Protein: Thymidine kinase
Organism: Ensifer adhaerens
Amino acid sequence: MAKLYFSYATMNAGKSTMLLQASYNYQERGMRVVMLIAAHDDRGGVGRISSRIGLGADAIPFHGDDDLYGLIDRLHSDGEGEIACIFVDEAQFLNEGQVWQLARVADRIGIPVMAYGLRTDFQGKLFPGSMALLAIADELREVRTICHCGRKATMVVRLDGEGKVAREGAQVEVGGNEKYVSYCRRHWDDLMRCE
């Protein structure tokens, strides 16, 4: 029975690296995979999954109005061979409807879906895609990284252009190490409450 998996963490935990490794394992055995990434995440180029350690692969970019079930159903029956697994990077950018579409891919087409993404934003609020995945995924997997103090990092701080902690702003602002730092809850709270 295929399942919908959600692997979540803060920034810099290695989610994209894990996705690329898992995808490689399937492909190395001659199995077909489909990789998806949010279209507005262009850090490695539009339609490109990239990791901080230099790994990368092409992926299908998705937008908020895309029908992912329809896309995967068409690809699965396109004559190129059955799809063994779907991989979704930056899954926090899915909308609730798209998460349900991915659940239907697992339930009705029988293809496992492995989604990787952030749980919360820089203000400690759930992303819509993450909220839906936490609610309906068959299996949840926390990918761990650490705070500078050695505790498990569960929160992320956004830095402005001057390297100062941003406390307000849009939920979605794409960036990497120059913009986001992961912290344990205690140190995140210290930084976010500081005046």
